[in-house]
Every structure is written in structure tokens, then in C-alpha cells.
Design goal:
alpha+beta; Tscrpt_reg_Spx/MgsR; Glutaredoxin; 4-stranded mixed beta sheet
């Protein structure tokens, strides 16, 4: 199995829980700072397919950038390409942690979902 990629933010409590979970379960991973290196458009499109096109699930809806950009109002009218470009260009907008697996993607931390990779 290839080492998974975990996009995280060091100041995020949920990301810290997720990293601890991976370490506690002996899962090999590469930790990538999401703000400096957001997921690629290809990765975001793959995650979007995993979430059946629900683009909102990829956004950090509680984040400052999301609120300041008033994306709750704008998101419904954005095309998929526009939403993906926004996410790829601003790691603060991406729901985290964002994990790239051989078999798919995990967005956010849900211990039940994550137990499947441990």
C-alpha cells in the first residue's frame, strides 16, 4: 500500500486528533500543510466523486475565509469547476483533514470512517 497523504493544519484540533489516530493505528502517512499546499484539482475532483458531487462537503464551512467570502450564498451558483478552482487555490477553504488514499478520500475526521483504513 502506498503511503497516504494527509492534508492538515497544525492549529486545527480535529487535524491533531486525526494525526494521533493515524499514529496510534500505525498507519504510514505523509502530512502536508493544507494552507501552504492545498490538495490538487485532480484530488479535489476525486473527492467530489466520492461524495457524489456534494461540493459543499469539501468546504470548511466554519472557517473565516468561507464566511468572509460569503460562500454560503455564492456556493449554490458556482459551477463545479469554479468551486474546485477556489478550493485548490485556498487551503483555508478545504474541509480538513483531507486524506488521499489508494482507494478514495476522507474529508473531515469521523473515527468510524477512519477505522476502515487503520
Amino acid at each position: 500500500m502506498k503511503i497516504l497523504k494527509a492534508y492538515t493544519y497544525s492549529g486545527c484540533g480535529t487535524c491533531k486528533k486525526a494525526v494521533r489516530f493515524l499514529r496510534d493505528h500505525g498507519v504510514a502517512f505523509e502530512e502536508i500543510p493544507i494552507r501552504e499546499h492545498p490538495p490538487t484539482e485532480k484530488e479535489l475532483k476525486g473527492a467530489l466523486q466520492s461524495y457524489k458531487g456534494e461540493v459543499r462537503r469539501l468546504f470548511n464551512t466554519s472557517g473565516r475565509d468561507y464566511k468572509e467570502m460569503e460562500l454560503s450564498k455564492k456556493l449554490p451558483s458556482l459551477s463545479e469547476a469554479e468551486a474546485i478552482a477556489l478550493l485548490a487555490g485556498n487551503g483555508n477553504l478545504v474541509k480538513r483533514p483531507f486524506v488521499v488514499l489508494d482507494s478514495g478520500y476522507l474529508v473531515g475526521f469521523n473515527e468510524t470512517d477512519w477505522a476502515k483504513i487503520a
